[in-house]
Amino acid sequence: MLALFLSVASVFGWGGDVQIYPGQINTFDVDYDLDTGTMFVAFQATGEDIIRLYASTDHGTSWSEVTTFITDGFMGTTPRTDLSRIRVIYNAGRVHIFWVDSLGSLNRSRCSSTGTAKGSSQVSAAAVPEGSFSVTLDLDSGRLYAGWRTGAGALTSQIIRFSDDHGITWTDHINWPAGYAGSLTQSLAYGPGVSNHLYWAFGTEQFGTPEELQYLRFPSGGGAWDQSRQMTNNAYANYDPRVAAANVDDSGVWILYNRDRGGHEIDLMNSYSPDAGVTWTIQDSPIDAEDGIDEYIADVKFYKDHPNSYVNMVYIKDDPAADPVRQAIWMYASTGDPSWRGAVVFSDEDIQPWPEETAPRIVYSPGVSASGGGVVFSYFGANGLYFDAPWIPGYTLTVTIHGSGAVVSSPPGIDCTHDVLIGDEVCTVGFAPGTAVALTATPIDGVDYTSSFIEWSGDCSGSGACPVVMNSDIFVEASFGALGIPVFALGVPASQEAWSYSPVESPVKQPDPANCRPFAIGDLSSGNLSLQVGLPPFSGGVDIYLALQSDAIASGTFYFVDDCNIPQPLSTVLPPWKTNVTFTDIDESLWGDIPLSDLPSGLYNLYIAITPTGETDFSHYYLWATYFFGSMI
Q1: Would you call 423 helix, strand, or coil by DSSP?
Q2: CB neighbours of 576 closer than 8 A, spacing ≥ 6?
Q3: 396-483: CATH class
Q4: C-alpha span between 495 and 610 (Å, rounded)
């Protein structure tokens, strides 16, 4: 099968991914305040027994913690560190967070938008399978709904409960025997109309195996269902339905779901009703069903403001040939034009595709100039929480690490590590315009070497702090070198390359010759000069030349150190310090400690050159230059 995008304009990007939280997470969910545009995300970090609530009051540019909730349940049960589902609803100044405690009871924790007025209640004292429950809100009445299936077998129940007092007490809307086996995943959604509706989609084996999807519609105010339909009828497994209705009276209704054709063949499917779920003009139709690639639904949501005919969705495309491989794709549709269009691959890195409890979530932020919603998501491995949206600017900070070290940023965003000498690590993250970012470099030692930070390059320089301001895309390189026994060899010079560097106390060896610091002067604060030469092995034979020059001794005269460590004035024949050096590590001192006070005051230049063995015309070389000042005390 092929992808069936209708009226799609593909783009890559939006802005840079804005980091909400840097650590690994178990699960999360989102919602927003229609009046202020404040967005909320509730999540559990891996290893913690609390739920953290974060908020953004500037449309996603920055995020901060509002409060935390201990996961000890309504009656003081053992706190949980392994939540796999959280659901969030914001309404009337309250954030409601739904989760299952260690006894299996479904709980609701709540607080104000600023983290005060905290409280909790039990939605169900009986056990609720964690992967089953779904929640929604009747925007007109403020009624909260929670629905679930008590188990996957035929002798289980399907339950929907509601609360008309902001979640304090709960009453059954339905509680009936399932009658047939089926998957746990349920999806509830509110839809407005002449009579407001509650839409419900779930999997069941009522129509055969593998299970098919069923849809029911209830009056939101209560009563029996008034619409029922088998939504799929094929030989494949159909699962994980997501239902949403546009926020206009008697609007379009979409049900999006996954179809598993076996192997690497999960397809994204949908059905559409133009009249609030009475008739279905699109049924069991592919949105994206490309052979050899998995596509599966993550989230679909309407916009809370009435009337609004649009819905947004995000799905995951797992394509081994793409970059990133695991893409999150945002699209939109509307009542009257139900085709999914405007596709955007927005994440800067591979996103977390599975389990679905860390899959991306749609969230809106009223008051921004751009249309549509944004997305909260996690990188592959459930690493971190990030936000991106059409209104997030595209300034990115890219850090490249050479050698063994780590670079982190403040505010959080860059957390880049490369713990081997050879090769590079590149990390990129987005920041809002004008954000002041400070980068910090930390060496990482290996088993047989000690790492040392050398310097910044690119949009930073020196070896101290690296502050940048995000008024454009920023590119920074951090170079680390190894002190001690190297585990690499430099290539023989194949061209003419030269580098100069600030004085170092100890030689620095690095796989890239541009980052080597072979001539060191020791700790001058001691009052002594201690010249040291440190070079890694070379992959072939080389000759090494050492030279010194200072106008304080003899203006314009270069002295070359011969193989007896005796400085010789420049002549027609340049004496090499060492010849035909190959796989030999160089770590030597010259002349011991020299009191700086014994040297004429002035600038002293130090040079070290490497040429292929026997080459005297210097047509190929590495040349390093550094310096020190005499008479320092």
Answers
A1: coil
A2: 543, 544, 545, 562, 563
A3: mainly beta
A4: 11
3-state secondary structure 264-275: CCEEEEEEEECC
Residue-wise pLDDT for 397-419, tens only, equals: 999 998 889 999 988 778 899 98
**Contact partners, residue 76, CB within 8 Å, separation at least 6:** none
Count how many residues are written for the chain: 633
Q: How far apart are the C-alpha atoms of 383 and 21, rounded to whole Å?
A: 9
Rounded Cα gap, residues 213 and 568, in angstroms: 89
| Cα radius of gyration (the chain) | 33
Confidence at residue 492, expressed as pLDDT on a 0 to 100 scale: 92
DSSP single-letter state for residue 250: T
Domain with CATH 2.120.10.70 in the chain: 11-388
HSE toward the beta carbon, residue 301, CA cutoff 13 A: 25
Predicted confidence at residue 10, as pLDDT, reads 27
Kindly tell me the burial class for residue 323, based on how many C-beta atoms sit within 10 Å of its own C-beta (0-12, 13-18, 19 or more). Answer: exposed
Determine contact, residues 532/506, Cβ cutoff 8 Å.
yes
CA 62 – CA 413 distance, rounded (Å): 11
Q: Look at strands 542-549 and 528-535 and give their pairing.
A: unpaired
Residue numbers of the chain with a pLDDT score lower than 70:
1-13, 75, 354-355, 370, 394, 432, 447-448, 483-487, 571-572, 583, 631-633
Where are the alpha helices (H) located in 414-542, listed in sequence order?
A: none
Res 1: pLDDT: 38
Residue whose structure tokens are 């210097």: 618
Euclidean distance between CA atoms 341 and 610, whole angstroms: 60
Which ranges in the chain are annotated with CATH 2.60.40? 396-483
Joined together, the tokens standing for residue 502 give 């600030």
């129509």: which residue's tokens? 207
Give the list of residues 6+ apart from residue 181 with CB closer than 8 angstroms, or none: 152, 153, 154, 204, 205, 211
The amino acid at 625: A
pTM beyond 0.85: the answer is no
CA–CA separation, 252 vs 342, rounded Å? Answer: 19
DSSP 180: S
Using DSSP's 3-state secondary structure scheme, residue 1 falls into coil
Q: Which residues are CB-neighbours of 380 under 8 A, at least 6 positions away? A: 326, 349, 350, 351, 352, 353
If one counts every other C-beta atom within 10 angstroms of the C-beta of residue 172, the result is 11
Token pair belonging to 394 = 């595209």
Q: Whose structure tokens read 């340049």?
A: 574
Whole-angstrom Cα distance, residue 119 to residue 99?
14
**In Å, what is the CA distance from 471 to each residue of 395, 433, 434, 474?**
7, 5, 5, 8
Decide yes or no: CATH 2.120.10.70 for domain 11-388.
Answer: yes
* DSSP-based three-state secondary structure for 525: helix
| CA triple 388-320-213, angle to 5 deg | 75
Q: Which amino acid is at 110?
A: R
Region of 208 (left: φ > 0; alpha: ψ -120 to 50; beta: rest) is left
Q: According to the model, what pLDDT value does residue 217 have? A: 97
Please name the residue that has the structure tokens 């419900």. 200
**DSSP SS3 for 133:** coil
Contacts of 227 (CB under 8 A, 6+ apart): 215, 216, 217, 277, 278
